């Protein structure tokens, strides 16, 4: 067998750490999983314990009951340790960025995996993983009028025929703050910022959890820096709404923010402490 692609991560994990990412995936990609003939999700680099793979199975099956999950780890000792937790719909395999599963996955989740890599390596990893994704499925008869290929502004759901999804991002140790990029077979689509609102002093606190493709670009002159600056300004302007709670302040902040930035979701997701922005608005300048 060829050597798996990639390097061993620290493997740090905690139960419920990826709940924000999982909830977003189930809400925005559940329809694609339900449409798939054989819905397969991959938890790539699940770490030293299999908790995140178990949780992913439970959350995805609530949205798409036929979904199966494969946990993939590059460290064979971790794969062996996870085997007792295999169950109906969940298996574990030794591998890396080659994603050693049959067929093309409908979902690949890679959380806290690329953090240890150099920024220059990210594009090649994304390209390799996107090439493994399932192609788009046919839309319903008549298609989706007005669809632009991005998530619906009202629901946050991706339209039909979007194909498989790669979700790659970073979160803190207990999952209070999380930022991820969503990619399809064609490449990056969106960036989502998610947080426990009661723990947030200002939106730019999320900068420390930017994925590797963006974290070194949070400097003047780069789009992500300008976005976080405007996010903080809108948050400060929405301070009067704090008397109604952090959630109402967050919602008001995003309503103001979308006047200048291509926000791709709606109040249903904002209420969860999330906001999703088009990738092209935050992409690094060459």
Automatic annotation (TrEMBL):
Q: Which keywords are on file for this protein?
A: Methyltransferase, Transferase
One Gene Ontology MF term: methyltransferase activity
Q: Looking at the record's lineage, which domain of life comes first? A: Bacteria
UniProt key word Magnesium? no
Q: Name one GO biological process term.
A: methylation
Give the region (Disordered) as residue ranges.
136-162
Membrane-spanning intervals of the chain: none
Provide the protein name: Class I SAM-dependent methyltransferase
> What lineage does the source organism belong to?
Bacteria, Bacillati, Actinomycetota, Actinomycetes, Kitasatosporales
């Amino acid at each position: 067998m060829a050597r798996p692609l990639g390097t061993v991560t620290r493997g740090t994990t905690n139960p419920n750490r990826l709940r924000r990412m999982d909830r977003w995936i189930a809400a925005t990609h559940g329809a694609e999983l339900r449409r798939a003939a054989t819905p397969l999700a991959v938890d790539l680099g699940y770490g030293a314990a299999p908790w995140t793979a178990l949780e992913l199975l439970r959350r995805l099956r609530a949205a798409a009951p036929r979904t199966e999950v494969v946990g993939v780890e590059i460290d064979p000792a971790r794969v062996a340790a996870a085997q007792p937790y295999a169950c109906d719909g969940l298996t574990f395999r030794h591998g890396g960025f080659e994603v050693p599963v049959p067929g093309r996955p409908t979902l690949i989740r890679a959380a806290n995996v690329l953090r240890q890599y150099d920024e220059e390596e990210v594009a090649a990893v994304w390209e390799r993983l996107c090439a493994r994704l399932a192609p788009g499925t046919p839309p319903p008869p008549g298609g989706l009028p007005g669809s632009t290929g991005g998530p619906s502004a009202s629901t946050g759901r991706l339209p039909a025929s979007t194909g498989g999804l790669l979700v790659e991002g970073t979160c803190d140790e207990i999952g209070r703050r999380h930022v991820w990029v969503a990619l399809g077979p064609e490449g990056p689509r969106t960036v989502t910022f998610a947080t426990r609102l009661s723990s947030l002093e200002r939106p730019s606190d999320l900068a420390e959890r930017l994925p590797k493709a963006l974290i070194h670009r949070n400097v003047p002159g780069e789009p992500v820096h300008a976005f976080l600056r405007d996010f903080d300004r809108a948050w400060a302007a929405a301070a009067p709404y704090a008397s109604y709670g952090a959630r109402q302040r967050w919602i008001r902040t995003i309503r103001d923010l979308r006047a200048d930035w291509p926000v791709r979701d709606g109040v249903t997701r904002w209420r969860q402490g999330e906001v999703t922005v088009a990738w092209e608005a935050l992409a690094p300048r060459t």
